[in-house]
Amino acid sequence: MEKFQGSIQSKLRKQETSISAIMSALAREHNAINLSQGFPDFPISQKLIELVFKYMQKGHNQYAPMTGIPELREQLSLKFEKLYGAAYDMDTEINITSGATQALHTAIASIIRDDDEVIVFEPAYDAYVPVIKLHGGMVKYAQLKLPDYHIDWQEVKKLISSRTRMIIINSPHNPTGSVLKPSDMKELIKITRNSDIIILSDEVYEHLIYDSLKHESVSAYPELAERAFVVGSFGKTFHATGWKTGFVLAPENLMEEFRKIHQFVVFACNTPIQYALAEFMTDSTNYEDLGKFYQRKRDYFLKLIDGSRFKVVPSHGTYFQLLDYSAITDEPERDFAIRMTEEFKLASIPVSVFYHENTNNNVLRFCFAKEESTLEKAAEILCRI
Ligand code: PMP
């Protein structure tokens, strides 16, 4: 095909391909164990697969309602009430989306205008900043503080101006595995009280939380919930990242704005999958034990790498584990991650890519949502380096 001969004014000039895509391709090329991208390598529930089939057979193969099927919205409403004491109306305050990614994009698109400021904590999941920029917003970066990647609320206060329109939080946090505490939520309440600031709360790892800690959902705090979009992902909860089905909860007036855009982005999401999820969610044990399940994987991985030269940065949530390699080399994270993939056949993610200035702290992110045999092979390599 001949290239387009006219001029293109790129809307995201400096945007690189996502690091997950780059590292996964490198892992494939070098036949390396892939602990880079966040996805399970074990099968999903057979029951869930059968449910999708059942609903396809029953003829649920045409467009779902724009907001999502009522059965699934009802299950979400019940779940948020039971777990977080939140009262979301299933018709006006809940919407099904094509993955959390689309929910995040649409929420940002529905609020952010030219020169609005958005506070983002770094290291930050890579789906926030490009979308803010695409919609003309300005990003104000707050740095999570080492060694445990906590929020410095004094720093956040200093970043707030009359133009601050949104704060994006993510707990449990990708890539660090840190989690917000009740004291953080109190600070967030203080900072946003009597302001026009909207909170975008990325809670896709709500059930992946360990060490007897409790997930602090924004929905559990009425003063926050009234100004928040809460975003979740069935892909994370039911090990089916490829299904790209998620949801968003918000008060009615925020949801109205969300839907104005949502209907022209995807209109409706996959119908049989929504029916299957709705039925599967009626049994809460399908998600309640997820924390225990993943904590066993985390603990097994940590036991296997005990004695290696990698230093563990405690992870209390998500399926990611940060490892500090300062005792091995002072190579920049990106170089070391690439060398490890090529030479040692183990792929990870350099945490520096989650900083706008590529800040290096000699830490790599490893995904432990893997079969024991995969973790054993990865650990054997880590112990050799
Ligand atoms: N937010 C965070 C923090 C994530 O880690 C991910 C998945 N990597 C997403 C959102 C996107 O979720 P989904 O696959 O449902 O679009």
Order of the strands making up the biggest sheet: 2-8-7-6-5-3-4
Strand content: 5-15%
Helix content: 25-40%
- Low-confidence segments, given as residue ranges, are none
- State the shape: globular
Largest sheet: 7 strands, mixed
Backbone structural class = alpha/beta
Mean pLDDT: 96
Helix segment count?
15
List how many beta strands DSSP finds: 13
**Measured distance between first and last alpha carbons:** 46 Å
Radius of gyration, in angstroms, nearest whole number: 21 Å
Q: Output the helix-strand order.
A: HEHHEHEHEHEHEHEHEHHHHEEHEEEH
Question: Which compounds are bound in this model?
Answer: 4'-deoxy-4'-aminopyridoxal-5'-phosphate
Report on the architecture of this protein:
The chain has 15 helices and 13 strands. It is globular, with a radius of gyration of 21 Å. The N and C termini lie far apart (46 Å). α3 (70-84) runs parallel beside α11 (271-281) and α4 packs across α10. Helix content is 40%, strand content 15%. It is α/β, with parallel strands linked by helices and 385 residues long. A seven-stranded mixed β-sheet has the order 2-8-7-6-5-3-4, with helices on both faces. Strands 9-10-13-12 form a four-stranded antiparallel β-sheet. α8 (222-225) links the parallel β6 and β7 (228-233). The longest helix is centred in the last third of the chain and has 16 residues, at 290-305. Bound molecules: 4'-deoxy-4'-aminopyridoxal-5'-phosphate. The site of 4'-deoxy-4'-aminopyridoxal-5'-phosphate (PMP) has 15 residues, from α4.
